[in-house]
Specification:
334 residues, alpha/beta, Rossmann fold, Dihydrodipicolinate Reductase, domain 2, seven-stranded parallel β-sheet, six-stranded mixed β-sheet, 15 strands, binds NADP nicotinamide-adenine-dinucleotide phosphate
Length: 334
């Protein structure tokens, strides 16, 4: 399959290139694309140094699968162009996620929505928001046995979730904690926690919180019958998102069954000890979603609480996108 990557110079783009380096279904060198800023940048793919160029419509001609991680504006422009040229677009941005007719896919949950591409006819498939993916991975197996009615989520999100400029901003503030240097985040992020991610919305929420609410329902195939609330916070962690999740279910909770359902769900690792947990530092570089602090809620037999940690650049972005590409190529990987 001929592949192109738009946003190849970014954190997610580079991670996707690393993951695709061992995919036998990728034929030849992928076409590496960015804005004019990144054109000329040399990037490694499967041990070879390839040059990135500024995106243009011709770049999608003859391409079977193209992975986008260039932000919403670029996705809105180039998604339809690539699809019209016959490519399948796997898009990491939020541009198309809630669009009617666009699948929002976490392969372990709803990978059946993806059919291998036969070539000729393209389209857009959306990769969910990073926090939503890891929360969905933990909620889906529990929903199947207990029928989740409410999901209350508090995220603690790493700065790399906002791209490489955000990582640089934290590093600058570490060097000089007293300087006012907030370009990406609304307040200093070093030694801090910021309960505001994305634009402020009229209903009192921030954009990131709204994404978790709407995307979780779409991935699980649910509507208003699943009540979701979210408070999304940015914390001075470089990589690895955490989420504290409280679920209220139709059926009473059996903690042994909950732990078994999570343990048997591909892509999830769980420690059933209620005091056990993983931290972002411990899971960086891992593909799985880690669940800990699994415990019942006192006085409510229908509620349980858990702690969910995952690498936002891997399962939260690049790995999930490459898993979708594997399905499009007809070569799902374990
Ligand atoms: N980081 C995460 O954990 C994560 C998780 C899920 C989803 N996402 C989404 O993935 C996308 C990329 O995130 P990132 O963290 O990799 O960001 P990043 O490190 O800031 O990289 C952004 C990439 O997009 C390219 N780009 C920006 N504007 C462009 C334009 N107008 N035309 C073509 N290319 C353009 C940049 O190229 P230049 O080199 O030319 O600037 C760069 O390659 C975003 O939509 C983000 O929301 C990120």
């Amino acid at each position: 399959m001929k592949v192109a990557v738009l946003g190849a110079t970014g954190l997610v783009g580079r991670t996707m290139l690393k993951l695709m380096g061992d995919r036998a279904w990728v034929s030849g060198d992928p076409v590496l694309l960015s804005s004019a800023r990144g054109a000329g940048t040399k990037l490694e793919f499967a041990g070879r140094q390839l040059e990135c160029k500024e995106v243009s419509a011709e770049d999608f001609q003859g391409v079977d699968i193209t992975l986008f991680s260039a932000g919403g504006d670029a996705s809105r422009i180039w998604g339809p162009v690539a699809a019209e040229a016959g490519a399948w677009v796997v898009d990491n941005s939020s541009a198309w996620r809630m669009e009617e007719g666009v699948s929002l896919v976490v392969p372990e949950i709803n990978g059946h929505l993806i059919k291998p591409t036969g070539g000729g006819k393209g389209g857009i498939i959306a990769n969910p928001n990073c926090s939503t993916i890891q929360v969905a991975m933990a909620v889906a197996p529990l929903d199947r046995i207990f029928s989740v009615r409410e999901a209350h989520v508090t995220t603690l999100q790493a700065v790399s979730g906002a791209g490489q400029k955000a990582v640089a901003e934290l590093e600058r503030q570490e060097q000089n904690p007293n300087a006012e240097m907030n370009e990406i985040f609304p307040r200093p992020i070093f030694h801090n926690a910021i309960p505001a991610i994305g634009a402020a919305l009229a209903d009192g929420s921030y954009e990131e919180e709204d994404k978790v609410v709407r995307e979780l329902r779409k991935i699980l195939g649910r509507k208003d019958d699943l009540a979701v609330t979210c408070t999304a916070t940015r914390v001075p962690v470089v990589t690895g998102h955490s989420a504290a999740v409280r679920l209220v279910c139709e059926k009473p909770i059996d903690l042994t069954k909950a732990a078994d359902a999570l343990a048997n769900f591909k892509g999830v690792e769980v420690d059933p000890d209620p005091h056990a947990y993983m931290t972002p530092r411990e899971i960086v570089g891992q593909s799985t979603v880690h669940v800990g602090r699994l415990r019942a809620e006192p006085n409510n037999p229908h509620a349980l609480m858990l702690w969910v940690v995952a690498d936002n650049l891997l399962k939260g972005a690049a790995r999930n996108a490459v898993q979708i590409a594997d399905l499009l190529a007809g070569k799902p990987q374990s």
